Amino acid sequence: MADIQGSYDDLFAAVPAALAVALDEGDAGGSVAVFVDGEPVVDVWGGFADAGRTVPWRRDTLVNVWSVTKTMTALCALVLADRGELDVDAPVARYWPEFAAAGKEGVLVRHVLSHTAGLPDWVWPVAELYDWPTATARLAAQAPQWEPGSAAGYHSLTQGFLVGEVVRRITGRMPGEFFADEIAGPLGADFHMGLPERDDPRVAPAVPPPSRDEDYTAGAAATSAPASEAGAHADTPAPSTSPASSAAPAPTALRVRDGNSAAWRRAQIPAASGFGNARSVALVQSVPACGGSVGGVRLLSRAGCERAWAEQFAGQDRRLGMPVSWGLGYGRFGGTYGWGGWGGSTVMIEPESRVAVAYVTNQMREPAADTRGMEMLMAAYDGLKGLRA
Prior knowledge:
Elements: E1 4-8, H1 14-24, E2 29-36, E3 39-47, E4 63-64, H2 69-82, H3 92-95, H4 109-113, H5 132-141, H6 158-171, H7 175-187, E5 192-193, H8 225-229, H9 256-259, H10 262-266, E6 274-276, H11 278-289, E7 293-294, E8 297-298, H12 302-309, E9 313-316, E10 323-326, E11 331-333, E12 336-340, E13 346-350, E14 355-361, H13 372-388
Antiparallel strand pairs: 1-3, 2-3, 2-14, 4-6, 5-6, 7-8, 9-10, 11-12, 12-13, 13-14
Helix pairs in contact: 1-13, 2-6, 2-12, 5-6
């Protein structure tokens, strides 16, 4: 069995066992954390940080968590809403006047948080993702593909710029800086949007699925129920069959090699370029899981947390090709909330139990066959049953 490092409560022994199984089945490396009442009951890691399996995964190893980053960016907006600086029912153009172009006067902040704004596709060169003024100007000039609020279509790369520019207009700070100053810093969370060069040695680059290379691209979402319920999905959408988007340019293909580049690490792409580990993801998302306060640091009111769970849309997502329920920046799965990223990283929170579970990995698998996030969650719930007994 794979060697697992870290610590865990004996009630949660199924969690490191699940990680060991993933590693034994061929994964390079990964980490899992379970926080209850804002405190870690599982903080484990194992495997390797490189495809050649020469560099051990360490306690402070960081990995690109892809779309798990969306939950961090959403939290920035929720903090501002809780402070009264952002009205989620206001037009985006109130804060970002240029955004009103091309018929977007009626796009509300809650539409961009819930993937219903009608701007789901990044159709320009990947290199433009690395330039904030260019990326936001592109989206400000684009017309929506459907009536905002009337349908959902997963905004895989665009959501971070849409929410992030609102954060920037309100605070005068880039979303990565706001997150660092107002969320990660106070909590002591090792999570970054716009990774400093000094942290490059800690990064575990993404490893493509077996038989694939670094030209492997994000594709259609997983369609199996267990995978989708765990938040396992790909970050770049399959083409929609809806008439509204049939004439739109095809989304730009994002390759593994793009995500492994220095340019990607430096850029702020707040829908997909966050770097952290399971410990930092679970710590940050313990804030909404625990009613807004962790370790004596209050970032949200209880009402502010509940705002995140309010359903904004329920139905078929035009990009994911499956039924979804969207809150404000979080997917809704019964009484749990969260999301996952391309390659398998996942976070889920359950406010009733005050628990946050995070799994991050550098090892990609084909989305339709990737059930690791669900397996980690089920292992965590085994431990929760023991706590409740």
